[in-house]
Amino acid sequence: MKLLTHNMLSCHIKNVRNGYPFLIEVVKVSEHEADFDPDFLKHIFPRINWPAFLQGAQSLGCREGLPEEAAESMLEDEGFLKRFHHALLEVFLEEGSLVCPETGRKFPVTKGIPNMLLNEDEC
Amino acid sequence: MKLKELHALMQDIAPFRRAKTELEQYPTGPHLASRLLFTVDNSYDEFAGRTVADLGCGTAMLSIGAALLGARHVVGVDIDPDALEVAAENIQEVAGGEEEGLPIDLVLADVRALPLTQPLLQADTVIMNPPFGTKQKGVDMAFLAAAFSVSLHTVYSLHKSSTRDFIAKTAKRDLGAASAEVLAQLRYDLPATMKFHKHKSVDIEVDLWRFEVGAAQQHQHQQAAGACGRRQEREEEDEDQEEEEEDDGEEEEAGGRRRQHVAAAGGLTAAASRAAAMTCAVPTAASLEALARRDGTGRGGRGDSEDEEEEEGEEEDEGEEDED
Questions:
Q1: Is B261 inside any structural domain?
Q2: A50-109 pLDDT, tens per residue?
Q3: Which of A67, B102, B131, B307 sits between 20 and 30 A of B313, alpha carbons compared?
Q4: Structural domains counted in chain A
Q5: What is the pTM of this model?
Q6: Residue A54 lies in a domain
Q7: Structure confidence by residue, pLDDT tens digits, B120-154
Q8: pLDDT: which is higher, B36 or B196
Q9: Containing structural domain, residue B128
Q10: Distance from CA of B229 to the nearest CA of A (A)
Q11: Other Cβ atoms closer than 10 A to A41
């Protein structure tokens, strides 16, 4: 699972009010090359929740070089784009868990696949 | 990529190891998959440089196709861990080496519940081959509601031709679609993968649909995003608006549409709750009656759908020549 996907997942089990963003418990991280496409990065940037992304990047060990706050203007900077691209699309959580920030409910990630299925009493 | 090449690629993708009746896990079939993918790519160019969600992805045939056609991020969602295991193997196989991966993330989740459980999940383009709802009534519509909640722009989906009118009505009235169009009618040559299939294969007439998500949906996304502290300001062009007037025979609906857009956010919530209400339910047992009806559609399908609309003509000239 990449951080782009992490950026769009949240915990909405019954009675949870603030289930975003997921904390990440890391067991294993891997890296795969992805095509570098500045146009796509510009396309996706406005949808990214930056604090959630940074928090995820911190957990996966690819936070370095990413600014505390991001602005549209940074998209002109090739160096920034490269680091953004890498953390967003090339670093994978292979094994670990997504942890709900409110309840601590863990959603296990196995072979890169997060299990977001809810139990009967959670929905 | 040519339709023929796509078709060949799709043929190499492994099907379900053991198809599950209750989940209606019919393999999408290289023919249907390649046609859907080809249309999205060739006629509308809605893969390249975009994010895609494949709902009920099964063994990831459509996800892999979308990634090969230039999608930059694909999320494949399925409720069945066994199917996702095969999907992961398929992805790895197509990707080849360890270094380069396909940009696909698989997520184990109940598609029907997505509007409630994963309101932040979104994609430019949603593609899916949902269950037809023969085993579990209404599941096809629950998938469609989920697709509308995830999609920012368009939804491509396959549905039985016999449900055409109902789909059109639901999409516009309940889901706030800006447009709903049957692009082609295809024949689903369903091999007898299920235990209850008496015949070697069953032909079902299937519509390839393209829906444009309405403005209300996009608004809803913004609200959902805002509620969770995401950035509020987003530059979203409402390309949908221009297309609205194109459809024929919609005049009487034109007035209602404004109101629809306003009401549609509520409509979606209702649809979402319906879908969610279903999620905890155990899939219902096979209804023999539904089955008989489906077989009936298969046998006489060609005949009873011929007179429905003028889409047949389009089907013929849309890339069919590439096939042979």
A1: no
A2: 999 999 999 999 999 999 999 999 999 999 999 999 999 999 999 999 999 999 999 999
A3: B131
A4: 1
A5: 0.76
A6: yes
A7: 999 999 999 999 888 888 999 999 999 999 999 99
A8: B36
A9: 3-219
A10: 8
A11: 19
Q: Which residues of B3-23 are buried (b: 16+ CB within 10 A; e: fewer)?
A: beebbebbeebebbeebeeeb
CB contact, 8 Å: A10 with chain B? yes
Residue B317: inside a domain: no
* Pairs of residues, one from chain A and one from chain B, whose beta carbons lie less than 8 Å apart: 109
Q: What is the CATH number of the domain that holds A42?
A: 2.20.25.10
pLDDT confidence band for A49 (50 / 70 / 90): very high
Residue range B242-253, pLDDT digits in tens: 444 444 444 444
Best B98, B108, B114, B280 member to test A by mutation, with max A CBs in 10 Å, is B108
In a domain, A104, yes or no: yes
| Paired sense of beta strands B179-191 and B201-212, if any | antiparallel
Q: Residue B149 falls within a domain, yes or no?
A: yes
pLDDT over 50 (residue B264)? no
CB B143 within 8 A of CB B128: yes
Phi, psi of A23 (to 5 degrees): -75, 150
- The closest CB to that of B103, out of A34, A39, A116, belongs to A34
Q: Check B88 against A112: CB less than 8 A apart.
A: yes
Rounded-to-integer distance, Cα B122 and Cα B242, Å: 23
Structural domain of residue A36, as residue ranges? 23-118
**Is the ipTM value over 0.85, yes or no?**
yes
Are A6 and A21 a contacting pair, CB within 8 Å?
A: yes
Percent of chain A whose predicted confidence (pLDDT) is above 90: 96
- Mark yes or no for CB contact B118/A9 under 8 Å: yes
Question: Is residue A53 included in any domain, yes or no?
Answer: yes
